[in-house]
Amino acid sequence: WFLFGSFLLIISLAVAFYCIIYLEWYCGVSDYDNKYPALVPLATATFVSAAICFNISLWHVWSFFTPFILLTQFMGLVMLVSLLG
């Protein structure tokens, strides 16, 4: 579960960096969610799936604290990526 969650998180981050760095900064497309409507749902679906996979894989480590710890880490990641855009 952990490797699959890591793979999904990499896909989600790759889509986010593609939107922010390539489309917005390099190509100058500021409204990429209208021009490429499938990118935002793809990034959201892979991010939520990664969160579920990480919760399943790390449940035996942190028990019922797992969702709270991962929520804090994922929100930190979202805030870090949002600083770029």
From TrEMBL:
Protein biosynthesis as UniProt keyword: no
Pfam families: TMEM128 (PF20479)
Family matches, as InterPro entries: TMEM128
Domain of life where this protein originates: Eukaryota
Keyword Kinase: no
Keyword terms, alphabetized: Membrane, Transmembrane, Transmembrane helix
Bilayer-spanning residue ranges: 6-26, 38-58, 64-84
PANTHER family xrefs: TRANSMEMBRANE PROTEIN 128
Name of protein: Transmembrane protein 128
Species for this entry: Latimeria chalumnae (Coelacanth)
The gene coding this protein: TMEM128
